[in-house]
Every structure is written in C-alpha cells, then in structure tokens.
Amino acid sequence: MTHEVKTTCPYCGVGCGVIARVTDAGDVSVSGDPDHPANFGRLCSKGSALAETLGLEGRALDPIVQGKTTTWDEALDLVAGRFQETIAEYGPDSVAFYLSGQLLTEDYYVANKLMKGFIGSANIDTNSRLCMASSVAGHRRAFGSDTVPGTYEDLELADLVVLVGSNMGWCHPVLYQRLAAAKAKRPGMKVVVIDPRRTATSDLADLHLSIAPDGDVALFNELLLSLMEQRKLDEGYILGNTEGFEEAVAAARRMGLAHAAATGLSHEERQAFFRLFGQTEKVVTCYSQGVNQSSIGTDKVNAIINCHLATGRIGRPGMGPFSLTGQPNAMGGREVGGLANMLAAHMVIENPTHRERVKRFWNAPAMAEKPGLKAVDMFEAVADGRIKALWIMSTNPVVSMPDADRVKAAIEACPFVVVSDMQADTDTARLAHVLLPASGWGEKSGTVTNSERRISRQRPFLTPPGTARPDWWHMAQVAQRMGFSGFDYTSPAEIFAEHAALSGFENDGERDFDISAHAGIDQADYEALSPFQWPQRHGQSRTTTRFFAKGSFYHADRKARFIALETAPPCRTDKAFPLVLNTGRVRDHWHTMTRTGKSARLSAHLAEPFVEIHPRDAAGLGIAEADLVQVESAHGGAVIVRALLTDRQKPGRLFIPMHWTGETAARARIDSLVPAVTDALSGQPALKHVPVKARRY
Ligand code: SF4
C-alpha cells in the first residue's frame, strides 16, 4: 500500500506543490502536484531529489546541553531560566532571536509574539534580512505596505519580461520553466536579462545587459527619462494615484548621463532596452538578490517601481514590478512581522495605534516599543556583549552572515546560545550551549507563503526521529516556562487560526495583509486547506488577485510615492584589491547544503567550490583552468577554490557560490570575505560587491 500526502517544497520562493508517496515499507518518492497553481506538476532538480535527502545521518535526535544528551524538560527549563535571568539582570534588549526563512509561518508567529509582545524587545531578525529586506523597504516606501502586486501568471501574460539581478533558471527554476514555456508558445514575447554575469537564465534572453555591479539605479533612472521622451507615461495614473513624480524626474536628470556610463553598458544597449520597455504595454520586471543584496538595494527596488508607476503598468494582467523571494517562507515571515523593524500582520512597530492594537489582541504584558536590531547589527551586539543570550533557529549564520569569522567569534563568546536545528553538526550548532532537535520537512505541519502571496500547507508524512519536535513547540514550551500565558498551543492549526484572526483584527481595509476568512479555522479545515492567495478577507467571497491597478495604495492618502534617486554605484575596488566578487547560488544546492548535500545526484552537478574568472584575468594572474586559486578580500580572510575560466564573467569580476563550507581541500566559507556593509534603509548586506584580489594557490 502507498499513501499520498500533498505538501510544499522546502527550498525556493516559487513554493511548488509536491506529492509525497510513502509505502508501507517506509520508502518515499516525490512528484510535482499537478493541481498546485505555482508549478502545475513541475519540479526542478532540487525538488525532484527531495526523497534522496530524507536520510537521518547527522540529525539532532535529542536535546543536548553542553555536549551531553538530556531530556526536553531539563533543556527547556534551562533555556527559560537563562533567558529570564538575563532579562532580569540586563533588560529585554539583552536577548535576541535569529530566525530563518526556512521556518514555517506558525513557528515564526510564536517567535515574534514571544519576543515582541512578552519579552518586550524587537530583537528578532532572520536570514530573510539577507534575502529580501530591500524589497520590503522599497515596497513600503512606494506603496505604504509590503505588497507584491502581481502573480506568477503575469509572467506568462506579459509581452516583455525583464529579469534584473536574477538567475531565475537556477534559483527559481520552475518559474523559469513556466516563462520558457510561455515564450515557446508566443515567440513574440521578449525577455531581457540584466545581470553582470551571463548565466543559464541569459540563454532565454533576447537581450542580455551585462550591467556593472550596482549600476541598476542609473539604468532605471535613465529609463524613466526615456519613457518621458517616448511619451509613454500614463499621466492619468500618475496624477490620480501617485505623489513625487516631478521630484523623481528632477533627481534622474541631476544624476545625468555621467552615471549612465557607470552602468557599464553602451548607448546602443541601453537604448535597445529603453525602446523595448517603452513600446511594450505588458511588462513585468522581476528582480531578486542581484537587486536586494546591495548597499543601495532599496534604491534599486524603487528605481524599478518608479518606472512601473510612471507607465501605470502595475496590478494589471501581465504588468508590474515583481520581487522574487529567495526562501520558501520569507513571505510568511514578513506576514507575521518576523523582522526587527516590523510588527505583525503587516502592522508597523513605530505606529502607536498598531502597537496598542496588537498588545490588546495578544493580551501582551510588555510590547516592544521600537524596532530591534537587524541581522548584521544583532551579531555586532553579540560581539560587543550587549546581547548575552541568543536563540538561533533553522539557520547557519557562521557560514551565511557577512563578516562570518567575526560572527563565529561573537557566537563563541556569547554567554548563552541556543540552537534549534534538524542537524546536530552544522558550523553554528557546534557552538550551541543548548541544541534543541527540530523536526524537518516531511515531519512538520504548517504553512508557507510563496513569492506570489500564495499560502500553502506543508504536511507531514514521516515520524520525526528521536525526540525531535517542531520549532513552534520549542518556543511555546519556553514561553510557558517563563510564566507567559497565551502559548498553550497544541497544534499549528491553532496558531494559524490566531494569526488569521489578527490579520483581520480592526482591519477595515487599512492593511493589505488579511486572511481573516480563515480566522478560527478548525483542525479538519486546516488539514484540507488548499493553496490560496491573500488577501482573503472575512465575509468577502471574491478575492483580489492583484493590487494597485486602480491605485488605492496603503499610505494614508492612498497614493503611491515616486522616490527621487541619485544613488551612484559605489566604487570599492582599488589597486590592491582590483576585482569585484559576486556571490550566489548554483542550480542543485541549497544554502549550506545541510539537505541537498545528502543527495549524490545533486552533489554531482558541481562537485566542489569554484571561482568563475574571465580568461583574460586568469592569464594575467598566471591561473590555468582547474588550478586552485586563493581569493582574498580587503576586509580580510581568504578562501581557496577551483578556477573555472569562462567568458560568462566579464573581466574584473569574479563569482563564487555560497554553499560550501568546512575545511576541506577547498576552503570556501566565502562570507568570511564579505564585509558587513549594508543598505542604510533595509539593513540588507551587500553580498554581491566585494573588492578582492586573486592568485594561484
Ligand atoms: Fe522547489 Fe523551487 Fe524547485 Fe519549485 S522551483 S521544486 S519550490 S526548489
């Protein structure tokens, strides 16, 4: 006998539906869910190899305190006690949670409630800060809310899809498959890829613009001016629904053509793009980490949004700016407010009415009153001793944070570190005073939200090994042991019901995020919940698929804001460190490989860490194909990786993937090279613009 369970892939933000089939003998196979509206049965290489990653090697099976296996009661009492003592002695801002876009919404909800409503600090941030914080900040500046206006279907309906800083072919593969299929069906559809690298995604492009690192604001500012010249503005939309157009144009003019040269693109290349954009009504501009992971990431997001507002191409079928989220549940984390500068249900922590509303809803004794520390600042506070108790869940900051060596040293020196993780031996778990075993994909129950605002269930089909338990349970147990009421959840369904109720609480349309149609959902309906896009407001039978076609933004005057931008690309290289290092993903691995590394098939795609280097640079440095190369940054630190000579990379630029860690023949913990430079608004680190030098090892 075989039984089938419908669930959702745990990797990227596409959020594909997966059918897991489990035999009586316990063998698992997976296939794409033909009924899921994100993927309609498709899976990429990572998703289709999920069954190969379910082995128990390396799993955390029982709580461990100071290296010794113990009981849950002892571990939880210790965590609650140490957090209470620390808060009593040093105040609520002396503790912090560092979460993950891998967590389910229910986990995130409980963590956010505990920290912001009961401990009384907003020191809760997440690796989503590294993924899409600039998009959040850009959305909020332009729209007054963190709203993704469109849907995946828009990519298929568009006549022009512009992909900015996105290797969609490898990082959002099923969405890329949908786009490629739509283009095959309608060959007149055009695709423009704007990316310093010529990636696998560029193979689909009618036009690839190998933009200079961080040249995007200059390019989209010039596009705004070109749209005026081409008489492609939607003046009615601008007049009725926006503010700040004249200032944005004036800033673009001031920025001038001098900066256009900083795009690294020829006049002809830029004009070809501007004509295509101007002459095509149905345009979707997708952007991802190449835009977000930058010291000017928020401005890049707004430069793109400016052009869509100016043409009124937003919220209509086949039109709009579209943020592609990296992680499976970065969106769900945003919805519960799981970032240091957010509240809950898309409310704003700086807004006293919102704080008071959430306080009443939670019956919270100690609402946080100000934003907490964003990821980079949080680890800085760990390093200088301001944070004395840290709980890390489902992420590996020793590898993934910029300034990774300093982050590692900070965690090592922190007086009390708790790690909740599936794996017992990650670079971060090794440093924990208390390791709490977490159940993982296939064992957990909850929800995730994908890049198009679609909420889907993750359903269990395996028994967790040892005594592993879900992350929400870890936190609810600690909260109860700290004496807090309101955490006696017995299932994720109860948490989701409360989250849905909060989304509609005193929400008369003032807030975009509203799933109150599911407030009070019972266990049976939660089990049966089909994928749905928000909003789904209580009492409304019709759902809104897209936002902003007719304006109605979420600033107080319901108008969008153009943002005046004069942000020049930063120049960080010098004679000593003349090369710009870009970091990113490969097709078949995920983050620090704790799951994908278990699949021999996935590991065979690219077997070891490498540096992409242009043959001309390689020749100048005496580097031959497959040589070991030492790459050092001005910031300090060095990695050793294999040379991959390719003209997909422009001279002066390098690329190294982010996944590998450890001290093998190749040492590739690349975030040790990356300085903690962040976007001033979003706090997102600049992971794609690191000055380095390279030599044959
Ligand atoms: Fe999973 Fe993303 Fe691949 Fe879909 S595209 S199967 S969500 S990794």
Helix content: 25-40%
Largest sheet: 7 strands, mixed
Text of the CATH class of the largest domain: Alpha Beta
Query: What small molecules are bound in this structure?
Result: iron/sulfur cluster
Strand element count: 26
Percent of sequence in beta strands: 15-25%
Structural class category: alpha/beta
Keywords: 4Fe-4S, Iron, Iron-sulfur, Metal-binding, Molybdenum, Nitrate assimilation, Oxidoreductase
Family: Belongs to the prokaryotic molybdopterin-containing oxidoreductase family. NasA/NapA/NarB subfamily.
Protein name: Assimilatory nitrate reductase catalytic subunit
Organism: Rhizobium paknamense
Characterise this structure.
The chain is an alpha/beta fold. The protein folds into 4 domains: 2-53, 2-Layer Sandwich (Phosphorylase Kinase, domain 1); 64-131 and 329-505 and 513-533, Rossmann fold, CATH 3.40.50.740; 133-324, 3-Layer(aba) Sandwich (Dimethylsulfoxide Reductase, domain 2); 579-696, Barwin-like endoglucanases. The model has no long low-confidence stretch (mean pLDDT 95). It has 23 helices and 26 strands. A hairpin with a 2-residue loop joins strand 4 and strand 5. Helix 3 packs parallel to helix 19, helix 4 packs across helix 13 (297-311) and helix 16 packs across helix 18 (404-413). The protein binds iron/sulfur cluster (SF4). Residues 9, 11-12, 14-16, 39, 43-44, 46-47, 172-174 line the site of iron/sulfur cluster (SF4).
Secondary structure: elements and pairs:
Elements: E1 2-8, E2 17-23, E3 28-32, H1 45-48, E4 64-65, E5 68-69, H2 72-90, E6 95-99, H3 105-119, E7 124-126, H4 133-143, H5 153-157, E8 160-164, H6 168-171, H7 173-185, E9 190-194, E10 207-209, H8 216-229, H9 235-241, E11 242-243, H10 245-261, H11 267-279, E12 283-287, H12 289-292, H13 297-311, E13 320-323, H14 330-335, H15 352-362, H16 375-383, E14 389-393, H17 397-400, H18 404-413, E15 416-421, E16 434-437, E17 446-449, E18 454-458, H19 471-481, H20 492-504, H21 523-528, E19 532-533, E20 560-561, E21 579-584, H22 600-605, E22 610-613, H23 615-621, E23 628-633, E24 638-645, E25 653-657, E26 690-696
Parallel strand pairs: 6-7, 6-14, 8-9, 8-12, 9-10, 11-20, 12-13, 14-15, 15-16, 21-25, 22-24
Antiparallel strand pairs: 1-2, 2-3, 4-5, 4-16, 17-18, 18-19, 21-26, 22-25, 23-24, 23-26
Helix pairs in contact: 2-19, 3-19, 3-20, 4-13, 8-10, 8-11, 8-13, 16-18
Bound molecules: iron/sulfur cluster.
Iron/sulfur cluster binds next to α1 and α7.
